[in-house]
Design brief:
By secondary structure, this protein is α/β, with parallel strands linked by helices. It has one domain (9-27, 38-324): UDP-N-acetylmuramoyl-L-alanine:D-glutamate ligase. The protein contains 13 helices and 14 strands. Helix 6 (191-198) crosses helix 7 (203-210). The longest helix is centred in the last third of the chain and has 15 residues, at 270-284. The chain starts with 8 loop residues before the first strand and ends with a helix.
């Protein structure tokens, strides 16, 4: 449109960045007086970083407003997100003397439990995000409040996506949630949240209620797939999950949302958006959780190269032939057991290998 300012980014996000420490391979949950051994451990940025990295790896220019601690964890998360993942942190700040929030995630029985420690950041997130950049889309969690920046972003033409999280008060106030959803384009709760807010007994019934609240309603249901209705196109769809060998489900919901936003911004049919979102989520659970489990286009292309040999997959995911960008995709990093490893010193050359004075001239 003539006179419309250029978008500074594709997606704007605001939230808390955690350092995630993930343990996998647990046979049972910890209990008092017992030590539980695991066969896997990974460290990675987490929290809102899960969605930020997932969006960036799928080619969205991503801007993040968050607070970072003035400790080694904060330095690690900032450097990885800005330098390795190419995320714009110009709306973020580092705070000396404040330690990074930390979450320990324990994966067992196809689920996870989490232990978190954090202190409030020196500056409220609302202040960091008070002047959002011009963006094609944005995301916020409406579980606690509706941030002031959201209205400005919507007014500026940003397509807003939201979820709500678990209501620990147990009230599941539908009127309050609907008020917070004013102007939001896409609402993406999981099945339990959707059924609780709508007082229904199935994900499909919950979707029928939610589709009257927002233009795009999506209800995710884990291994049972995802349901959606798009009032802007008149489409409804269900897409099954993609079967993979799962290691850790941490961050899968964020990766699903990233895939959904990519498809929406590219005007894909609703069925394709759901299939792609389910695929991205499935590819993420094969690795340690947190931000670094998110797939890039390289992982998508590798999966499609193998999956197209199956008749059903070849039919359902044929759209990937045009969706996968041309060229060589960049390699992405994965979670490691620790952070900040110092490089090993270069060993000295043996005496016999040292160059002579004549050779060194």
């Amino acid at each position: 449109m003539a006179g419309t300012p250029p978008h500074e980014c594709d997606i704007f996000l605001s939230g808390t960045v955690f350092l995630d420490i993930i343990f996998t391979g647990m046979l049972n949950a910890p209990s008092g007086g017992h030590e539980v051994w695991t066969d896997g451990m990974g460290s990675s940025p987490g929290g809102v970083a899960n969605l930020a990295v997932a969006c960036s790896r799928l080619g969205l220019r991503t801007c993040l407003a968050a607070a970072f601690g003035g400790d080694a964890y904060g330095e690690y998360c900032w450097t990885l997100l800005e330098e390795a993942e190419g995320i714009d942190l110009s709306h973020s700040s580092r705070f000396e003397g404040w330690h990074s929030p930390v979450t320990v995630s324990l994966a067992f029985d196809d689920d996870r439990a989490m232990v978190t420690h954090e202190h409030p950041a020196p500056v409220a997130l609302a202040r960091l995000a008070s002047s959002p950049p011009m963006s094609r889309a944005c995301f916020t969690d409406l579980g606690l409040e509706r941030p002031d920046w959201l209205g400005k972003a919507i007014t500026d033409g940003s397509l807003a996506f939201a979820d709500c999280g678990w209501d620990h008060s147990g009230t599941w106030d539908t009127d309050m949630l609907r008020d917070r959803l004013r102007g939001v384009h896409g609402f993406v709760p999981n099945a339990e949240e959707a059924m609780a807010y709508t007082r229904t007994a199935s994900p499909g019934a919950a979707l029928e209620r939610i589709r009257d609240w927002v233009p795009l309603a999506v209800v995710t249901n884990g291994s049972a797939g995802a349901f959606a209705a798009d009032n802007t196109t008149g489409e409804t769809a269900w897409a099954p999950s993609v079967r993979v060998e799962a290691l850790d489900p941490t961050g899968a919901g964020d990766v699903f949302l990233a895939g959904l936003m990519v498809g929406t911004l590219n005007d894909w049919p609703l069925q394709q958006r759901l299939r792609f979102a389910n695929l991205c989520a499935a590819l993420s659970v094969r690795d340690f959780g947190g931000a670094l489990s998110a797939p890039g286009w390289g992982e998508v292309a590798t999966w499609w190269h193998d999956a197209r040999e199956q008749a059903r997959m070849a039919r359902d995911y044929e759209f990937l032939d045009e969706a996968i960008p041309a060229g060589t995709p960049r390699a992405v990093s994965r979670a490691s057991a620790t952070i900040g490893l110092r490089p090993l010193p270069t060993p000295p050359l043996p005496h016999s290998a040292e160059p002579s004075k004549e050779e060194s001239r």
